[in-house]
Write a structure and sequence with these properties.
This protein is an all-alpha fold. The chain has ten helices and no strands. It has helices at 2-8, 12-30, 33-57, 64-77, 89-111, 133-163, 166-177, 182-189, 193-217, 228-232.
Length: 234
């Protein structure tokens, strides 16, 4: 009887993966803030654990939480490319995106010049980073405001992404989400490497311009004083 119970009891890992995939499918269909927030709350803790292990394996001293945010940004951007029937479901897809995000961050850091401080090693030592209670509350309120603003920004981003041509969407998806090389993307698009780079560059510029125009039209510009509620009703 105990053996039968063990067989019939669903695996916690399998159940969690099924829930994550189901939430991703719901967000893919609805594309709203509530479904994305539910997906983030369910999947982010486990993905962050995996990202931390990946940072440790690659001896990357960057902040795993930044990699997590980059990953979810791309999950939001390219939700349409998710395939629920793919092996591993959402978890495998999200880990692929997170791994690509970490590699891109590493390449970006490699391009930055190293500036040596002439203040001595003592100047680089960190002091007590603990916050006063009032500061902690203020920081928490700011973080909530940033999350709300980011969610609304992503809604604009998703709308603008759909306005791009099919080729531009495919190029950005292959580079940003799937982490393909320009040679691989060129083979899919039927373009040479140099032309492929230009296609991706122009697609990014078009998307940037569309997002800027959409946000400006909604009144979300520096110094406008536009509130989150006003943007939500726009």
């Amino acid at each position: 009887m105990s053996n039968l119970s063990a067989v019939c009891t669903p695996s916690p890992v399998l159940s969690t993966r099924t829930v994550e995939t189901g939430l991703m499918v719901e967000f893919q269909a609805r594309r709203d803030h509530a479904s994305f927030e539910a997906l983030y709350r369910a999947a982010a803790p486990g993905l962050l654990v995996w990202i931390r292990s990946l940072h440790a394996q690659q001896r990357d001293r960057g902040d795993p939480r930044e990699t997590l945010q980059d990953a979810f940004l791309n999950i939001y951007r390219y939700a349409a490319s998710f395939k629920p029937s793919a092996p591993g479901g959402f978890r495998s897809w999200a880990r692929t995106i997170a791994g690509n995000a970490l590699r891109r961050r590493g390449r970006d850091r490699g391009r930055r010049p190293v500036v040596q401080s002439d203040l001595g090693e003592g100047a680089l030592e960190q002091g007590d980073l603990r916050l006063e209670p009032c500061s902690a509350v203020s920081l928490g309120e700011q973080a909530n405001a940033v999350r709300s603003g980011m969610a609304l920004l992503l809604l604009h981003y998703a709308t603008c992404f759909k306005a791009l041509s099919t080729r531009d969407q495919a190029a950005l998806r292959m580079v940003e989400v799937e982490g393909r090389s320009y040679d691989e993307v060129g083979a899919e698009l039927g373009t040479r490497r140099s032309n492929t780079k230009m296609v991706v560059f122009r697609a990014r510029k078009r998307l940037q311009s569309l997002v800027a125009g959409t946000i400006s039209g909604a009144g979300l510009v520096p110094g406008s004083g536009a509130s989150v509620a006003a943007l939500q009703s726009a």
